[in-house]
Predict the structure.
Amino acid sequence: MTPAPDGLCRHCLLPLGRRGFVRTVNGESCQFCCYGCCIAHQVKSGSGDASEAAWFLVRLGAGGFLSMNIMLFSLLVYSGAFTGADRQVLPTIQLLLWGLATPAVLILGEPFLRETWSQALRGRLSSSALIVLGSLAAYLYSTLAVFRLGGHLYFDTAAMVLMLFTLGRYLEAAGRARASRDLAPLLAAESESATVVEGVEEHRRPVREVRAGMLIRVRPGERIPVDGLIVEGCSHTDDSVISGESRQIAKTIGGSVLAGSINLDGPLLIRSSGSGDESRWAQICRSVRDALRQSSRTQRIADRVAGAFVPLVLALAGLTLAYWAQRLPLDQAMLAALSVLVVACPCAVGLAAPMAHSLGIGQLARHGCLVRSPGALEALAVTRLIAFDKTGTLTLGRPHLVDLAGDGVGEDEMLARLAGLERYSEHGLARAIALAARARGLEPIATEEVRVVPGRGLRGVVDGELVAAGTAALMHELGWQLPPALVERADVMAASGHSVVFIGWSDKACAGRARALLSFDDTPLPEARATIDALRALGVRVMLLTGDHGGAAARLAATVGVEDWQAGLAPDAKRIALDQCRPRHGAVAMVGDGLNDGPGLAWADVGIAVGSATDLARETADLVLPADGLWLLPWVVGRARAVRSTILANLAWAFGYNLIALTCAMLGLLQPILAAAVMAGSSVLVVLNSLRLERLPGPVYPSALQVAAAARATSEPQPREHAERARQRVETPRTWGESSGELRL
Amino acid sequence: MGYYALLFIAGLAGSFHCIGMCGGFACALGGDPRGRSATAVRHALYNTGRLTTYCFLGGLAGGLGAAIYTCLGMRSQLGAPIVSESLVALQRGLAVIAGLLMIIMALQFFGLRGLRRVTTGFGGSTLATALRSLLGTRGHAAPLAFGVVNGFLPCPLVYAMVAQAASTFDVLSGCLTMAAFGLGTFPTMLLMGGLGRLLAPGWRQHGVRLAGSFILALGLVTLGRGIVPMTAHGLHHVWHFA
């Protein structure tokens, strides 16, 4: 494995945060977010160098041995086992305690001391300073007591405080590593290496050095490092990292394989079809890593508060000491101050958000939903209004040609021109046009300089003459005339809810004008209604914002059960519509796919792209659902809310608990050992609370009944296709653009 | 003294159970390439670590018992004779717990696997994983650390003994209780380190049955001590009156 991406802990893949540090493990420089992770990483990966690997557990075990002996003898002393006749052994016991405590403090305290020192060099006061100060004070006081002053010994306090914190950190690291389990395969893309076959030799090379055309050998059980075609061998693969769907797929010679999928049962020889860092997997990896590296607002605030906490606690401990020293013997005052130091360690605060975020992002990713930032997840949780685009989002995005009318041109010529123009477009209508043209056996007319006019249509050049297709507004913009006969016809078509496209061109003889008109109809998604009902059940208002005209919007709105709709909106108008909703509903989300959604998705608080989203839409989206993944939306919203409430609960717990415990400690009500135990326990509780997210149920496809009802409700002439589609999806509930074969991030 | 001897025997008999889990670890700890004496030191350190954990748990339980005792004792100064009764009840409760744990344990010897999850499902796997990484480590600290962590592995017999230690209401007695039990497990565990693989499976099976019977008997006696004394006491009163 090569280094983990910058900014993330090598072990748990969470953001480094304030406690981050660099340590050399197995001759490699690694970043860790906390000491526990550093240790856990060594334990996990140190197969080559065992002494390094298990050093921590040895430390913990030997420290435990010493601490338990100290504790045992201290307990015996407290319980009065050495009174009366046995009194003369007491000094020996004290010396023994000192002999046990000195190595214990050295062994267990060293990591905390090192952390304090390295942070101090950077001018920061870390929370481990509290632990070091507390345990050293107890140790030094007791040492003095043994050799000079006499009195009570607190070796047990020093040793047990260090022991409990070390244990707490280890458990915390184990929890963090578990939280990132879902993410590990997603983030492994860049650290993977490939077996490159060159002639008769085979070399292990990092994936980023693999270029197109290289031959790669993949053994059974290995992850396929790059996209490519199978040259030799046959096997089954599991593409779950890419598609979110765990299923065995048979592959044989000539078949294509995706980077990130696991080669299950046969050796394969693959010819790479692109360089290693361009694969889908690498792109997903980059996106997820970027998401993890960002911290949400909540976490930033929490970190800032925790940063201010440490000096404050030092001051409070000083005050406590000063106050109690006047009323109690010095050692008891010291004990109270020590409790303050130990109990206030704000470890849990730093843990509150990152774990929940990474769990949330990891689980969504496992189901094919990519999140651009943790902030987006939190924003989605508070969103109360979701606006949908129509075409391709609530509909199949596969409109079919219903009607066409020309004004002095043949149907074939107009279709051929249109097919040429729309050839490179990803818009849903383009496919319908291509289909219609192919059905008539027409060859698309070669068109150059094709440009998209967002929200209006397309324009291009044929033989030096302009040709354009799109809305009436586009024709007006070009200054082209719309024949009244066509306008009248268009009104009729639009009133019945169909999408209308004008096509016009100029030629040498006359200026450009609209020459024909086509109408299309689209089928609503079978699960659209169930999805919208589910969202409404979650307390989310739903509205439809479409560039289409009113008739189509109204018909679709009625079919899928949306009451609120606005039609005929250009991309900018969608932005304005979103702005109008903000004051009433707070955060607003926008779901869309096409090119003309880009600005809307970017403008919304949470932009959600579905399915065959074009590159631009994905760039501007905060959340990308897989193709055919609209039905996942209610689950995603639920998950986002769960993440947010977990974080809030964690923060409330961490801060509230700290405050209460701090008060108790200042009042002298808390023993330091107990304080350390509850403090370490607090971190573990935060970890456990976050891990609860793991147990939430996965997404469930709306039941066949609901989908069938939706299919019946639509007046579409293809009920068979609906049922078929619904059935397919029940079988393959999670797909990453399987049908479109398209995934770009 | 007889009490501690009994505990020692309990440890000795119970350690046949350890052949399964702890014995496996002892075997895995294996020999030291530097020779027999080094191997002996390695296993002695491992067992010392384990014993320390047991003593610590015993002392802690005894201390906890003592704290409860003092608590109740302080309330007794308010002048209620209920105290001695509630103490006895506490002691009996602990005996019942210890007895039941021993019986569960003994039933496991006879192959009741279903109970295993009840008793060992508690964080055992995390600990066991951690332990595994210690096995390959050189140096004297590793077997010691191994023993220390091993001592915390969930085991109903240890729980039973801890309950027993708590019922002594004294740190020293609690510690000694566990020490006697821990020392009882020494012979088997040391042997396992040396000739674990030499024992024939059939012989092991017999040993396990025998140990099971003993633990079952001990468990029943302990359980009986939890339930019977009061009744015996009552009978005594009845006789007294008669």
Remarks:
- Chain B has one domain: 2-241.
- Residues 114-124, 230-242 of chain B have pLDDT under 50 and may be disordered.
- The two ends of chain B are 35 Å apart (CA to CA).
- The interface with chain A takes residues 49, 52-53, 55-56, 59-60, 62-63, 66, 126, 130, 133-134, 136-139, 141-142, 144-149, 170-172, 175 of chain B (CB under 8 Å).
